[in-house]
Amino acid sequence: MTISERIDTARRERRVLTRVSRAARRLDQAEREGALAQAPASQPLGVASQGFPAIDVSDGQAWPQKWVRNMNRRTRTLTVTVAGAAAVGLAAVAARPEVRQEARRAGQFARPLRRGAPLAPVPPWLPPGRVINLPGRGEVFVRDSGGIPAAPAVLLLHGFTVSADLNFFAAYALLAESYRVIAPDLRGHGRGMRSAEPFTLEDCADDAAALLGQLGAGQVIVVGYSMGGPVGLLLARRHPGTVAALVMQATALEARGTARQRLARRPLLSAFELSLRLGTGAGIADRVARQAIEEQPGLGRYRPWLAAELRRGLTPGLADAARAVDRYDARPWAGQLGLPAAILITTRDRIVRPSRQRELAEALHAQVIETDADHDLPLVNGEEYARLTRLAVDTAAAAAKLKIAT
Hints:
Layout: H1 3-32, H2 35-38, H3 62-94, H4 97-109, E1 129-134, E2 138-144, E3 153-157, H5 164-168, H6 172-176, E4 180-184, H7 201-215, E5 220-225, H8 228-238, E6 243-249, H9 259-277, H10 281-295, H11 303-313, H12 318-326, E7 341-346, H13 354-364, E8 367-371, H14 377-380, H15 382-399
Parallel strand pairs: 3-4, 3-5, 5-6, 6-7, 7-8
Antiparallel strand pairs: 1-2, 2-4
């Protein structure tokens, strides 16, 4: 039996004994109040309603107190057992710094939330937003800076669970100085389209193509962060001539992995869907916002907006998006796109491993920019993310021989 199994078993036994002990204490209390004295000596006074067998107390008044003492002693013994097993587990954690760091992060994330006076969700600067009807497809919400005459357009495609604003708010202003910035909320995310059809990355790519046609944007530089990367690559593949250059960020060539890895992810996806359907996302959103502010205190004034935007994205339909990402595999065709590309690799990424990001860079023959950051870079270090995104976009634009407005 493993350490974790021993701990779980001891905890279950302790819970049972605690219930028994509580039932015994109720008997003791009843005795003191005279309830036992009124009952016939041969009649068992039971606690079957609590899930335990009836108990014979005909041998006198000392029995309940003795039973309580015995149960309490056994409970204390189990407490020591749990503590000892936990100590062994903690020793194992202490021997592995990376595990210790993850445990510390999990503990910090799970801290209770402090509820203060409600504040208005005032956002940072954002480009103008509007809802556009895509004939035959539905309505999409998009940010559109309007751009500078003759300046190339940059299409920003956000990651899983977030909106365009959450992913790119830190980079909007710097990009808008020289480019037309177009940032839609993908279907099932943020203010994006809600459809009864199952979520697919291909539909997201087709939505983007229809949107660009409605806006008359011409060829665009696609910036795809995490899940937005596959959408951008599919846009280039399914709609030739739409994309002038690619900027991939914290994303991979494929997400399928091995059959064993896919099997291991199934219960995680099911648990994720269950949590969304049970409405546990609000607490998660508030904790993510808190964690981001602790790492970047300047975000504190936007905390209500951050939490509101995070809550907006946690809908039950996201489970379908997770499954779509899980099936994604561009290995057979990504190398055939033949487009200028740059890639921003987050070298401490715990969600998309750097090795997988480098595989994509190799397939696209992309110019590589690396940063010592995790997957939450846009949120926790927005200024650096904006600088690197502008650098990557300028690099891709130059490779595509696009004229940049100055």
